[in-house]
Each structure stands twice: as C-alpha cells, then as structure tokens.
Amino acid sequence: MSRTDATGIDLVHQVIRREVGRLSSLVTASGYSKGHIATVGDHIDSIINLIFATHRYKAEVIWPKLLSRSRENLEPLLASLTTQHRSVESTLRQCWPAARRWRRSPAERQRYDLILHLRSVAAVTKSGLAREDIDLVPLVVRELSTDENDDFADRVLHPDPEVSAPVAFEAPGTPPRSATRSR
Q1: How many other C-beta atoms are found inside a 10 Å radius of the C-beta of residue 21?
Q2: CA-to-CA distance for 173 and 134, rounded, in angstroms?
Q3: Where is 46: in which H helix or E strand?
Q4: What is the pLDDT of residue 162?
C-alpha cells in the first residue's frame, strides 16, 4: 500500500471541530427570529448527522480496511474508539430533544438548555477527535491510499451525489439533508 497524506480525514475533523465549536454561539446569535432559529436548527441537525455519518463510515469502511492491512493488533484500539464514538453519540442524542424544544419555544430556558448540550457536544467531540488525530490518523496515513482517504471525506461531506454543496457548507436557509443516507 502506498503512503498517503491525511487530507480527507483531516478535512472532516477540521470541519467538525469548527462547526461544533460555533453551534452554541449561533444559537445565541439567532435571537428570536423564526427564520434564524430554523436556519440554525437545520445546521445543528446537519452537523449532528455529519458526526453520525463520520462514525458509521469509519466503523463500516475504514476500520475493516485497517484491520485487514495492518500488522499490528488494532482490535483494542478500535474497541476503545468504538466506545468513544458511543459516548459522543449518546451526547448527540441528548442534544436533539433540547434543539426541538428550543425551536418550538425559543425562550431563555430552552436556549440555555440547548447551549449547555451543545457545549457538551463540543467538548466530547473535540476530545475524541484529538485522540483520533494521535491514534487513528497515523494508521490511515500508513494503511489507506490517498483515494480511499479522499473518498471518506467525499462521502461524509457530500452525502447526496446529486447536490454539489457539502453538508457543512450549505447556504443559510437550505433545508437539511440527512448525512446518514448510504450510497
């Protein structure tokens, strides 16, 4: 296997870091405008779906390739990363009801509750990505081709091949697309 760079996985990690770090500020900035709340709510859904899609693609495509190609015993590492993904996903699942409550009634209590959930999402996600940057990315660089790595980014950032704009870069007001659809 030829050596690759980590552009695909790095790009996905950078987008997720940037966007989860902005979500609570976007909620605060949305005020009480129904249009702004709808746009920010759709963006929250898109980013949560992006994280789920990223985890699924790693588990279904990347990790099996790493297991079949690496000479190292990766099962303990990948089991640990699976546990980490479940922790992040549990935090994400708690965020959806808070986002729905805020969208229905954007009073201070709902806004504050959602911001706390989003800050928790940011903390666990950024921590998990930092660990993956140390433990997973070097394996991806060593064991996957550049095309395989880039395919990861293409599939999670562009879940719908008919639409040219990536999930994380949609124009404001664009209806959310599910990043969890398979190809």
Answers
A1: 15
A2: 36
A3: helix 34-57
A4: 55
The pLDDT assigned to 63 comes to 92
Half-sphere exposure of 68 (CA within 13 A, CB side): 8
DSSP readout, 74-116? -HHHHHHHHHHHHHHHHHHHHHHHHHHHHHH---HHHHHHHHH
- Give the pLDDT confidence of 47-61 residue by residue, as tens digits: 999 999 999 999 999
Q: Which amino acid is at 138?
A: P
- CA–CA separation, 160 vs 177, rounded Å? 8
Q: Which residues of 68-87 are buried (b: 16+ CB within 10 A; e: fewer)?
A: eeeeeebeebbeebeebbee
What are the pLDDT digits (tens) for 9-40?
888 999 999 999 999 999 999 999 999 999 99
- Helices 75-104, 108-135: inter-axial angle, 10-degree rounding: 160
